[in-house]
Amino acid sequence: MRLMSTTQVDRLDTPTSRVAPHVSRYASGSLIASHTHDTLQVLYARSGTLQVHVRQHVCVVDPGRAALIPPGMEHAIRVREDTEMASLYCSDAALPDEFRSVAVSPMTQELILRTVERSSEHAFRADRHVHLLGLLFEELRTPALTIPRIHLPNDRRAARVCEEVLKSPADHPHLERLAERAGASPRTINRLLRRELGLSFRQWRQQVMMNMAIDALLQGASVSNVAIELGYTSVSAFSYAFRCWTGVSPTAYGKPQNNHVIQ
């Protein structure tokens, strides 16, 4: 792991909660080993991209998404790009006690960043702090939509194939090559994925592609450009696949919105 810098700022207290902000910068390729926290963590990437691994699930954290990690939940973090990571460690915040990845609205992004920035200001007014955190927690408590998150298999061989895809999801690797590296045949990998996740390798990889699409759309990319980047022959074909996985049109992520929960 290559930690570039870290900043611990003053804890913030309100009548109903305590929040300890923390800012760190990590280089691309860093791996934060599996660990837990005593309090709920709101994890956000001001820049760059992270993958948060929780049990048999993976979610992406970037400038368009934040992860809520309950106290005591073991998790690891893989840094895909140079990242400035902002964390809020929250006690008694009345947030859901379950792991979730939230596609945050522009307002929620600003609330997270203002909480971190204002906590280091000596002249920070307590009454403003109470209102700021109250609004932030309300935004995180009330997501509007749910979309699939990435599931991982337990079998070592199938998990290795999936991990290789997640390292470079845009590379379009062939299953034959990945299976050979994992010490199994393509047929075996497909059988294992269907047994554990109910998906073929192609279907599982499409799930990864849909998560990439959400990343791009949240960053302001057009639907047509995302469709081309992911190799779809038409916008309509991409939109149909996107709706099948998420339940909504890709245009829902291309404009200001309420928070969305990624399950």
Automatic annotation (TrEMBL):
<keyword id="KW-0804">Transcription</keyword>
<dbReference type="Pfam" id="PF12833">
    <property type="entry name" value="HTH_18"/>
</dbReference>
<keyword id="KW-0238">DNA-binding</keyword>
<dbReference type="InterPro" id="IPR003313">
    <property type="entry name" value="AraC-bd"/>
</dbReference>
<keyword id="KW-0678">Repressor</keyword>
<dbReference type="InterPro" id="IPR011051">
    <property type="entry name" value="RmlC_Cupin_sf"/>
</dbReference>
<dbReference type="GO" id="GO:0043565">
    <property type="term" value="F:sequence-specific DNA binding"/>
</dbReference>
<dbReference type="GO" id="GO:0003700">
    <property type="term" value="F:DNA-binding transcription factor activity"/>
</dbReference>
<dbReference type="InterPro" id="IPR014710">
    <property type="entry name" value="RmlC-like_jellyroll"/>
</dbReference>
<feature type="domain" description="HTH araC/xylS-type">
    <location>
        <begin position="156"/>
        <end position="256"/>
    </location>
</feature>
<protein>
    <submittedName>
        <fullName>AraC family transcriptional regulator</fullName>
    </submittedName>
</protein>
<keyword id="KW-0805">Transcription regulation</keyword>
<dbReference type="InterPro" id="IPR018060">
    <property type="entry name" value="HTH_AraC"/>
</dbReference>
<dbReference type="Pfam" id="PF02311">
    <property type="entry name" value="AraC_binding"/>
</dbReference>
<dbReference type="InterPro" id="IPR009057">
    <property type="entry name" value="Homeodomain-like_sf"/>
</dbReference>
